[in-house]
Amino acid sequence: MIYRKIYQSPLGEIALCSDGEYLTALCFKASEVYSRYIQDSEGRDLPIFTETIRWLDLYFQGKDPGFTPKYKRYHETSFRRDVAEEMLKIPRGQTTTYGNIAKAIAKKRGLAKMSAQAVGGAVGWNPICIIIPCHRVVGADDNLTGYSGGMNNKIGLLKLEGVDLTKFH
Length: 169
What we know:
6 helices, alpha/beta
């Protein structure tokens, strides 16, 4: 069974989903995949939701929560795991490019190069937005590219983190 809780953030509604123990999805209502995550789920209060809401409250207050809610990413390939690990290395208030992540994974895997487009697909697949900071990944030449949670939310999250958006287009 999948359980859900709705969180009202300053940027809009966010769905939290759980298998009962772990956070399995966190996505904006504006997300392309929102309905997929809440479909066939049951509303319920769970300890993981309490923990995640505490994390989100601190985050949206501009604070470093200092902990990470327990999460599990189902249907994760080794490539998606590598991309998530790279996203988790991006400090709050900073960004990196799909190309930089591709280079890091290529180096880790002993490859001459890796596709930035493939990285983009894995970033877009991320079911645990904000906590796994896919919003901090931008395109080459400081191009603010798409965000499955909605471009306005990506901009809002980056502003909240103090990123200077004047350098992006």
